[in-house]
């Protein structure tokens, strides 16, 4: 039986905007959760950017070892989010947490930025 993954997000009862983003790409072995920083402008933009940038980087840089690839992908997402925040006053200060899992050849690499946690 092939392993399956599931994902869901819920805005909860306190916020008006859902700043969560996630990705589950079983074929590429990439699983991400990004939780935009609530109360800050652009949290939903930051979380969407993080998911897209990390996914794209991991897929296009398969020549790197999984841990190195995931680390560089997260750093690239942080750099791009910071630049976008600096370029656009409406997004100034935006940020997101990141929880990323990269599964390849029976091995898993887990990375985390912020207070989103992963459990085994």
Notes on the protein architecture:
This protein has 120 residues and is of the alpha+beta class. 33% of the residues lie in helices and 24% in strands. It is built from 2 helices and 4 strands. The chain has helices at 43-60, 66-87; strands at 20-25, 30-36, 96-104, 107-113. It has a 4-stranded antiparallel beta sheet, covered by helices on one side. A hairpin with a 4-residue loop joins strand 1 and strand 2. Helix 1 (43-60) runs antiparallel to helix 2. It starts with 19 loop residues before the first strand and ends in a 7-residue tail after the last strand. The mean pLDDT is 90.
Secondary structure elements and pairings:
Layout: E1 20-25, E2 30-36, H1 43-60, H2 66-87, E3 96-104, E4 107-113
Antiparallel strand pairs: 1-2, 2-3, 3-4
Helix pairs in contact: 1-2
How would you describe this structure in keywords?
single chain; 120 residues; alpha+beta; 2 helices; 4 strands; 33% helix; 24% strand; globular
């Amino acid at each position: 039986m092939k392993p399956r993954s599931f994902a869901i997000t819920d805005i909860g009862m306190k916020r008006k905007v859902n700043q969560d983003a996630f990705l589950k790409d079983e074929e590429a072995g990439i699983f991400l959760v990004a939780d935009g920083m609530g109360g800050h402008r652009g949290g939903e933009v930051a979380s969407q950017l993080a998911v897209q940038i990390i996914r794209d980087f991991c897929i296009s840089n398969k020549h790197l070892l999984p841990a190195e690839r995931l680390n560089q992908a997260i750093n690239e997402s942080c750099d791009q989010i910071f630049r976008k925040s600096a370029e656009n006053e409406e997004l100034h200060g935006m940020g997101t947490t990141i929880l990323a899992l990269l599964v390849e050849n029976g091995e898993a690499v887990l990375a985390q930025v912020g207070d989103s946690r992963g459990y085994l």
